Every structure is written in structure tokens, then in C-alpha cells.
Amino acid sequence: MTTVLQFAAPGADVAFLLARVLFGAVIAFMGLNHFMNVEQMTGYAEMKGLPAPRLGVVFSGGMLVFGGIGIALGAFPALAAGAVALFMLVSTPLFHDFWAVPEDQQQSEMTNFLKNVVILGGSLTFLALSSSTWSYALGLGLF
Predict the structure, then answer these.
(1) Cα–Cα dist 43/114, whole Å
(2) pLDDT in tens, 117-133
(3) Single pTM value for the model
(4) CB within 8 A of 36, min separation 6: which ones?
(5) 3-class SS at 97?
């Protein structure tokens, strides 16, 4: 059942639109970064033990671009937010294992781990709201 997302506060639908666009744009940029730095990211993925690291970098870049654009535009919101959430759920402990790196790398990896946890929380919020109709959205979806 699809419901219309309604906010009690005036202007909240515009604030939600701004949140979607900002969040989605950053996620899409992160995905583009996978493509712009594919060699460097492939080396990092290989170092972390990812099988088929280049394929993983390209595939995950695509997930992020799709997810970010989908959230920003309100197109296929369940798939878009789900793609971002899945990427964060898998990549966060795999690539930012601050507990298993040398001490001089722990702070950087912990910062990236926590950043990804925040992004995971945001994507889960958009996923939870994906069954509602969003204001100022394309309205494309599977459900």
C-alpha cells in the first residue's frame, strides 16, 4: 500500500527534497569516484582481499550512482535506497576495519567506518520511507 508522505511542519516537504538531493548527490559522486579512480580503488580492494576487485569497484560504483540519483530524483526509491544500504552494509566492515589495521591507520579507518555508518542510517531512513509517495519526486517505482 502506497501512502502519501505528509509532514506537519510547513516547508518540511521542501526540506525533505533538499535532504534527498544533498544525500543523493553525495552518494552519486562517491559512485562516480569509483569510475574516475578505478585503478587506485582496485588496488585498495585487492589489498583488502576482495575477489575480482576491479569488477567489485565498477559494480559498486554503479550501485552508488544508481542509488544516489534514484534517491535525489525519487525514482525507484526502494531499489535506490536498498542499493546504497547494501553497499554500506557490506563495504563498511570489509574496507574500514579500524580494529584490524596498524595503529597509525586506525583513526582514518574509524572515521571512514563511522561516516559509512551514518550513510547506512540515512539510506535505511529513505528505504523505510520508500513505500510513501514523495513530494517533488519522479514517482517511478516498482510498488
Answers:
(1) 23
(2) 999 999 999 999 988 88
(3) 0.90
(4) none
(5) coil
